[in-house]
Amino acid sequence: MISFERSEPMIRFRVFGQVRMCDNSGQSVEVCGVHRRTLLALLLLSPGKVVSREQLVEQLWRGAPPQGETNALQAHIARLRRELERCFGSEKGESRLSTSTFGYSLHVEQGELDLEVFDTLRLTARQVADADPPAATDMLQQAVELWSGPAFAEVRERSDRLYAAAVQAEEHYVLALEEFVELNLERGHYDWVIGRLKALTAQYPYRERLFEQLIIALGKTGRRAEAAEVFRRVRSEMVNEFGLEPSSDLNRAFQHALEDE
């Protein structure tokens, strides 16, 4: 069995839900001002890498910068640096945000950004799932527990780059949920799966795989009539709204549910 020790990383920057920082005790520290939160989010998209002034200006003001945009950007950078010092202390906070000839970079250690930790857990779980399902299940549980709301929630609409990153993050989150549920299905945790999937299918009504998993779990617990009702409802919505029949995978899941003893 692969050795996997569950541990809580020391996350210092969070982009799931509201963009914020965390102090040495793990408490969230709000970043004041929507421009500063947007600036922090843009820097966190490329941790440790220089983001050009031109790109920051373009994204912060959506192609309509104020007069004197260089001075305006410098003012926001100075305020963000003070926020970092308030969170991490004067010396450490100042060293987090670097200025170069071309732009600015934010120093983030491995394991300090929730999005990066999430992706690492998700991808590692996928690699070990066949060899060690319990370890993969634990990793995916840690990953989905990091999700405290849509990525870059209150600033995603202010920047094309942030919006694209938020959409990608949510897709990865739902994939992680599907894989987490699948592993629990394989381990026979049918009642837990049914409860979780009833909520998830309401939240993500166009994810066929979630409905497949719900129908399979219902069949495994002998709830064939309920499985049939779920299938009929999904098929009706797909035909009426999109003119599409359910996929072969969903049909197969329904047939297996009817045949399960």
Q: CATH topology of the domain at 13-106, what is it called?
A: Arc Repressor Mutant, subunit A
Number of helices: 11
- Content-based structural category: mainly alpha
> Could you name the ranges where pLDDT drops below 50 across 5 or more consecutive residues?
1-7
What does this protein structure show overall?
The chain has 261 residues and is mostly helical. Among the domains are: 13-106, Arc Repressor Mutant, subunit A (Orthogonal Bundle), CATH 1.10.10.10; 188-261, Alpha Horseshoe (Serine Threonine Protein Phosphatase 5, Tetratricopeptide repeat), CATH 1.25.40.10. 61% of the residues lie in helices and 7% in strands. The protein contains eleven helices and six strands. It has helices at 34-44, 53-60, 69-88, 90-96, 114-128, 133-145, 160-186, 190-203, 208-220, 224-242, 248-259; strands at residues 13-14, 20-22, 28-30, 51-52, 97-99, 103-106. Helix 9 runs antiparallel to helix 10 and helix 10 (224-242) packs antiparallel against helix 11 (248-259). The longest helix is centred in the middle third of the chain and has 27 residues, at 160-186. The radius of gyration is 22 Å and the shape is elongated. The two termini are 32 Å apart. The model is unreliable at 1-7 (pLDDT under 50).
